[in-house]
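Issue 218. Parser rejects a valid record. Input:
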Amino acid sequence: MCSVNRIKVIANYLPQFHVIPENSKWWGDGFTDWLAVKRTQPLYKGHSQPRIPLDKHYYHLDDVDEIRWQAQLAKKYGVYGFGIYHYWFSSELKLLEKPAELIRDNSDIDINYLFLWDNTSWTRTWSKERLMNDWAPDYDGDISQEEIDNGGVLAKLVYGTKEDWKKHFDYLLSFFRDSRYIKIDNKPVFGIFQPHNQFSVIKDMVEYWDKLAKENGFAGIICMTKDNWRNENLEYRIRYSPFSPNYFMDALKNKVNNVISKKMKRIRFASYDKCWRRILRDAEKADSKTFLSGFVDFDDTPRRGRMARIMKGGTPEKFGRYLKRLMEISRKKEIEYVFVTAWNEWGEGAYLEPDETKGYAYLEALKKAVDEVNAEG
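Output the parser choked on:
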């Protein structure tokens, strides 16, 4: 990567907030994360739940005007682009693609973007499928015989053959050709979240995609993998925020208002400050081909109920201070982009969008960090 003048923040973006037939079938009619967010109850005294969007703005992302609003808000507060989660399961199945397609097809939406492919299968919580994503575990309601026969697999990831890889690339190509799609040295940037999911296949597929990219006028493609303990990585990596189980301790070993009830014994807590300090410590060790990543906050009670993972001690002021330091490290290493989890992960309490408790405080903290770091340059 070449020397950079400005550090640019990419906020991870969840396209889940619109009704699709599959979610209605699996989780209940009209299900989106908003349903889970609205129904959440506090689990202990002082627990900040439910989280309510400012002015109760429960938007639907199949409405292009709502995406325009998001883009305008993001740009105003210093977000350079969205890292849009991409759910491609096979040549026959992709899900939640509507918001990205609306951005692609409406050039007036002033936001840069790239894809982050969550390359796993979707399953029920009880499935024995390896390397899966149990999307809404607190909503495992009525189970169909078909799901039982399928072992709880709702949407199966199938990489397929070269023919399938080309179909996937051809779909992505319509986005790569968009001037707003984020590129480095004329190479579209594409994230792969689960490199350990058949890594040998991923390597072959990425090599093929690089060839296809060059045939279509690009200098190649930059596929970055989420850094992982197995060291199954491509040349470029993203050091994702630490939400592994190791960071969330058993509630019985922690004091929450000095009272731990039996009903809380499966909740896990982590220290906001300790997690951020770990992020910054790891960032200092990263090489110049590792994109750095931080987070706003975390509380997935809407999805996991009494099995939630909850950060303790986060504030907008701390977020801004830690993010600024992460951006400074990124500048020192000449890494142009810093990722933040997330723009709108309401089901996991990780969002920059304004809510009725903090208002615009997290966005204001982000803008202050961005402005100060880039003024230093």
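Fixed in the parser; the record now loads. The first helix runs from residue 21 to 27.
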